[in-house]
Design goal:
This protein is of the alpha/beta class and 330 residues long. It has 14 helices and eight strands. The radius of gyration is 20 Å and the shape is globular.
Length: 330
């Protein structure tokens, strides 16, 4: 009897677009560990149209990242369509529209998840962007604005009618922000709707290999997108992929191995930003969230020092001391 190993693309794993996180350094790390698609930080359409240099920098992508999506956000159709044309010149594989960011400075101004309060406008933006470019356009959104307006099942059909190539659904409302549990039942309801034919990508609370498999098995999604669980943990993609393909968990990596990956990420961040201190500051959220340092006894003071260090020599010294002190704890 012959057996076949499932192809990676049969149950794809995507890196979620996250502001101040999914820069080229981190995207390449996640790609190396098996992310099947990566997304840029979100890009302001208004800033792109105004030629803001820092925003234009976010369009820098490399062939090593492909397939890669550039995500844009805005609240008006004309600048969104114009921005999509500018983005297309960077040659991404997809242009993603952000109708899901819940933070006040975005949603409060009517962009991101704020669009969920004006569905006709959201659909008009989508139609105009799809018409403006030949690159496939995708959408990322939430279940609705609040518990009384979970409109995603109907909205998914309307977005599909606008001509989008795929839909990512974060299983929370805007009002929930990142609180409570993601509602995968509703994501599954969109996927099982016989009128839907575009790929449905599920997002929210996927933190372990076992949960990723459940999301594919129980809800039938075409891909799973992973966000905050990747902070300081880019090898999560490798752990999930191994479990999906074999049904077995990978043995835990040594603390030394994990710390070496964090060091590499620091170096990549410094190289990308071009400034040692700024590169380290940019990496701090990864140290803070990494499973490498979770649950270590009497680690609080060293953690504070690690998050205050401003040179790579200090960061690496503190990491090495941590491995020396805790590396043999099982």
């Amino acid at each position: 009897m012959t057996t076949t190993t499932p192809s990676h693309t049969s149950r794809p794993l995507y890196l979620a677009p996250m502001e101040d996180v999914t820069d080229p350094a981190f995207r390449l790390m996640c790609k190396r560990f098996g992310a099947d698609r990566v997304y840029t930080e979100f890009v302001s359409a208004e800033a792109l149209v105004r030629n803001v240099k820092r925003t234009e920098q976010k369009l820098l992508i490399s062939d090593e990242e492909r397939p890669v999506a550039i995500q844009i956000y805005g609240r008006d159709a004309e600048p969104m369509a114009e921005a999509a044309k500018i983005v297309e010149q960077a040659r991404p594989d997809f242009i993603d529209l952000n109708f899901g960011c819940p933070v006040k400075k975005v949603a409060g101004k009517g962009a991101g998840a704020g669009m969920l309060r004006d569905i006709p406008k959201l659909l008009d933006i989508t139609r105009q962007v799809v018409r403006a470019v030949s690159t496939p356009v995708t959408v990322k959104t939430r279940l609705g604005w609040d518990d009384e307006h979970k409109i995603i099942v109907a909205l998914a059909e309307q977005l599909q009618d606008c001509g989008i190539a795929a839909l990512t659904i974060h299983g929370r409302t805007r009002s929930q922000m990142y609180r409570g549990e993601a509602d995968w039942e509703l994501i599954g309801k969109v996927k099982s709707n016989p009128r839907m034919h575009i790929p449905i990508i599920g997002n929210g609370d996927v933190t372990t290999p076992e949960r990723a498999k459940e999301c594919f098995d129980l809800y039938g999604v075409d891909a799973v997108m992973i966000g905050r669980a990747t902070f300081g943990h880019p090898w999560l993609f490798q752990e999930i992929r191994h479990y999906l393909d074999t049904g077995e968990l990978l043995p835990p990596y040594s603390m030394q191995w994990q710390v070496d990956i964090l060091k590499e990420h620091v170096l990549r961040s410094i190289e990308w930003i071009g400034d040692e201190r700024k590169g380290i500051v940019h990496s701090r959220r990864h140290f803070a969230a990494s499973p490498v340092f979770k649950g270590l006894p009497d680690f609080r003071q060293k953690r504070i020092c690690l998050l205050r260090a401003e040179t790579k020599d200090d960061v690496f010294r503190l990491m090495d001391e941590t491995v020396e002190q805790y590396g043999n704890i099982s």
